[in-house]
Amino acid sequence: MSKTLRLNIPQWQGGDMPAYHFGAQLLAWLAPQASGPVENVDVRCVETSDLENENGIVGRSEIIPQLQQTRELIDKHQPDSLVILGGDCLVDLVPFAYLHEKYGHELGILWVDAHPDIMTSQEFEHSHASVLRVLMGEGDADLTQFVQKPISSDQVMYAGVNEENDYEANFLAQRQMRICRPEEIHSQISSIQQWIKEQGIKYLAIHLDLDVLSIADFGSLLFTKPDAAEDEFAGIAQGKLTMADVVKVTALASAQAKVVGMGITEHLPWDSLRLKQMLEKLPLLGNA
To answer: What whole-number distance in Å separates Cα of residue 219 and Cα of residue 78?
Structure first.
């Protein structure tokens, strides 16, 4: 009988957004009950970020121990499959690296995201935007140390990526990386099946960044931040999928290969967070 380990990792430092901590906790509460072991990675909770850029990466000294603890918990259980509930996108680094060690080139990574996550610290100081690049064995040495067996570009398929910046577009073109665009997802998908067949993929790790969803369909996302400046998200691609689209993509992929990894990240339930903060100020409930 296969064993699935569920990891709750409320990491927020990779995106320098403390609200990811609460978002991950609520995500873990909302998720169906686990049928196997559950482990929690220790992440400190704050309301306001106090992180600094440490040699190119914001919050480096907190992120690395969290990644180390993640690997220790995985090694403790040696699972056949993993569910990861985060936190920022970097939470999938160590689990997906482990799965690639276990399943080798028969593993494919389906990256369901509005963004390709292939930056390095030279391009962007927030490490959640570098996770897939690190899985390829490239980037900051403190991060690549967790990748014993780098993934190759032909083992990766994007779903939902759109409106990349110039750096991202050039990288994806140079590596000839495959993308199932929102337009294809809205109609008849064929590229995902073709990728799985051509690459001989038998196992899948699926990364789901909730920002692949359109804010018209789901509001608990970075782009609905209540106090955001008018131009805060200028030039940053926003998701174009619906929840039905995400279910469609994952169902189609899981019919073609066995899913051994499922990571869900970047849940930002702003209204629930504001309500939580209000409740803490009321008589008999909080410190009022």
So the answer is: 36
SS3 assignment, position 214: coil
Structure tokens at 101: 């060690």
The pair of three-digit structure tokens given for residue 126, joined into one six-digit string: 């927030």
Residue that has been written with the tokens 């985060």 in this structure: 86
Domains of the chain: 4-279 (3.40.800.10)
Q: Which long-range contacts (CB under 8 A, 24 or more apart) does 98-101 make?
A: 98/71, 98/74, 99/203, 99/205, 99/260, 99/261, 100/135, 100/149, 100/151, 100/205, 101/148, 101/149
Interval 229-275: pLDDT, tens: 989 999 999 999 999 999 999 999 999 999 999 999 999 999 999 99
pLDDT digits (tens, 9 = 90+) for 150-163: 999 999 999 999 99
What is the identity of the amino acid at 225?
K
The pTM assigned to this predicted structure is: 0.97
